[in-house]
C-alpha cells in the first residue's frame, strides 16, 4: 500500500518544521550534528501526524500544535538512538543508514539522546509558557508519563534487559503497550489537548490510539518474517534469532493478520462520532494494517 | 568545615522526600531498583537545598516547592549515572559506592538515567498541572533549558567528547558554566519562581547562583589535588592524568583559592537585599569555599 496522500502531506510539513527546529538547536556543534542527523533520518513521522490530525478535529482555542508535534518526534528519535546502543539492541542500521553511535561514537550518541529528550520539554516549555500555560503543563504531564518508567522506558527494560523467552503473548502485549503504545496514545491525547477536546472525545481518541498502537506492533511482527531488510530499512528476523515471543511465533501469520484487522476495525469505530473530519485518522489506521514497511 | 546545621536540616528533609518519591516509582522492579539505588546514594543535596532555601525567602502564593526540589535532584542523579558510563567518564565508584552500571549493568544504567530525567518532568507535570499551571510550565522551561544542549548536556560534550587539553582556563570556565553552573542557577531560579519572586530578586539570585556555581568548580579542582579518594568518595587526580586544563593547572592552588574567595564574596553581596532571611544561602556560599569534600 502506498502511503496515503493526506498522510504524506502532513509528513512533508513535519519534515519542514523539524528542519527549522534542528537548524536552531543550541549547544556544541558536534552535539547539534548528532541530534540533527538522527532527527533527519526520516521515517513516517507517525506521532506528529497523529498529533496534528487529532488537533485538526477540533476548532480549539487556536493554540499552536507544532511545538507539541515536534516534541513527540524528539522523544521518539531519542528512544531510537538509545535503543540502538551496543548495550541495548546493538543495531548498526536504522532506516538504511548507520545508527547514531556508529556514525558519531557511543558517548555522543548517549548525549544526543539525552539532549533530544530534554529539548522536547524545552520546546514545550518555551512555546506554551506565555501563550498557553495550562496546555503546556498538561502536555508536559502527558508526554513525561508516556515516555517514562511506567511507559516507554519501562517497556524497553522489559523488552531488552529482562526478556522472558517463554512469556505468553498477552504478557508480551503488555510490554508493547508500554514500549510503543504509550507514546502513540500520548500523541493523540496531546493533539486532543492542544485542540481543546471535551472529555468524551478524549476518551474515544485514547481508545483509537491504543488499538492502532497494538495493531502497529502486530504488523511489525508480521513484517519481521514476511519482508526483506531492504524494504524495511532495518535488520529482519531478529525476534526469531533472539527466541522472543511474537504474535507470529504464538499465532502464525494468518491469525496475526486477523487480529490486526480486528484492532483496526475497533479503532475506526471509535472515530464515527467525528464523521468526515476524521478522514486522516482513518487513513492512518488503514495504512497500519496494509503497510509494507 | 562541618556541614552547617541549617543546611543539614534541609538535607534530612530532602532525603525523606526523595525516599517517598522513590518508594512510589512505577515501572518494572529492576528499573525502579536502579533508579532508587542512585537516588539514595547520598551527597549534599545541594540543588534541592538551594531551591528550597531560595523559595523560603519569599512569602509566595503557598505553592509546594518539594516536587520541584526533588525533580532537580532527579536530573542531577541522571546526569551522574550517564556521566559514569564506560563510554563517558568510565567511573567505577561514586560517593564510595559502585556506580549504577557497575551494579546493574550498562543497559539498565542507561535506561535508569533516561527514566529519572523523564520522571523529573513527570513530577513537575503532575504536581503543578492543576494546582499552579503557570508555575509548572515555567519550571519545565527553566529546568529543560538548563539541563539541555545549551546547558548541562552540552557542557558534558565539551568536557568529555571534545576535550581540548590546551584550552585556556577561561574557555574551560565556559564549559563549567554549562556543565554544572546551569543546573545550579536553575535550582535557585526555580525556587524563586515557586516562591513568587519579583524580577529584581530573580536577577540578584541568578547572579548569586552563577558565582557559587563557579566557586564550586574551583574548589572541586583544588580538592582534586589536595584531598584523598577516601575523603572525597571518588577517584582523585583524574584531571591531571587526563591533562585537562583546571584552575589549579592554570593558576596554582593559592591563586585558585583567592578566586574562589572572590566569587563567594560577590555571591554573598547579592544577598544583602534579603537580610537575615538569606542566612541559609549565605551558609551555603561559605560552605562551598571551605568544603573538604
CATH topology of chain A: Farnesyl Diphosphate Synthase
CATH architecture of chain A: Orthogonal Bundle
Name the chain pair whose interface involves the most residues: A-B, 54 and 54 residues
Oligomer: homodimer
- For the record, give the distance between the C-alpha atoms at the N and C termini of chain A, rounded to a whole number: 9 Å
Strand residue percentage of chain A: under 5%
Poorly predicted sequence stretches spanning 5 or more consecutive residues of chain A: none
Helix content of chain A: over 70%
For the largest beta-sheet of chain A, the strand count, sense and barrel status come to: 2 strands, antiparallel
Overall pLDDT confidence of chain A: 93
CATH class of chain A: Mainly Alpha
Radius of gyration over C-alpha positions of chain A, nearest whole angstrom? 18 Å
Order of helices and strands of chain A: HHHHEEHHHHHHHHHH
CATH superfamily of chain A: Farnesyl Diphosphate Synthase
Main-sheet strand order of chain A equals 1-2
Number of strands of chain A: 2
What does this protein structure show overall?
- The structure is a homodimer of 293-residue chains.
- Chain A is an all-alpha fold.
- The first copy, chain A, has a single domain, classed as Orthogonal Bundle (Farnesyl Diphosphate Synthase), CATH 1.10.600.10.
- In chain A, 72% of the residues lie in helices and 1% in strands.
- Chain A has helices spanning 5-23, 29-39, 46-55, 66-83, 100-104, 106-128, 133-147, 152-161, 169-195, 199-226, 229-232, 238-241, 247-270, 279-290, and strands at 93-94, 97-98.
- A two-stranded antiparallel sheet of chain A has the order 1-2.
- In chain A, helix 4 runs antiparallel to helix 6.
- The first copy, chain A, is globular and about 50 Å long.
- At the A-B interface, helix 2, helix 6, helix 7 and helix 8 of A face helix 2, helix 6, helix 7 and helix 8 of B.
